[in-house]
Amino acid sequence: MKLLTKTSRYYIFYTIPVILFSAIFIYFFLLEEIGESNESILLTRVKVIQSSTLKKEMVLC
Predict the structure, then answer these.
(1) Residues 46, 52, 53, 58: is their CA dihedral positive or negative?
(2) What DSSP string describes 10-33?
(3) At 1, is the secondary structure helix, strand, or coil?
């Protein structure tokens, strides 16, 4: 029984910090990836809107 409690204690002491570190790392990694993705989508939409407004201005002139 002592070995079982000792093993459980080691699992708790070693896995909790690893899980916390991994969660923090993944959070910031995904935050960066989503930010870059959103930025590229917005830039693409801006280009599309600019080109469509230029075409409309040319038709109106």
Answers:
(1) positive
(2) HHHHHHHHHHHHHHHHHHHHHHHH
(3) coil
**Between the CA atoms of 6, 8, 13 and 14, what dihedral angle is there, to the nearest 10 degrees?**
110
CA distance 5 to 55: 74
Q: What pLDDT does residue 11 have?
A: 85
Predicted pLDDT at 56: 75
**Amino acid, single-letter form, for residue 39:** E
Measured CA to CA, the distance from residue 6 to residue 12 in angstroms comes to 10
* pLDDT at position 17: 92
The whole-angstrom separation of Cα 50 and Cα 26 is 36
Tokens of 53: 């407004």
- Stretches where the chain sits below pLDDT 50 are none
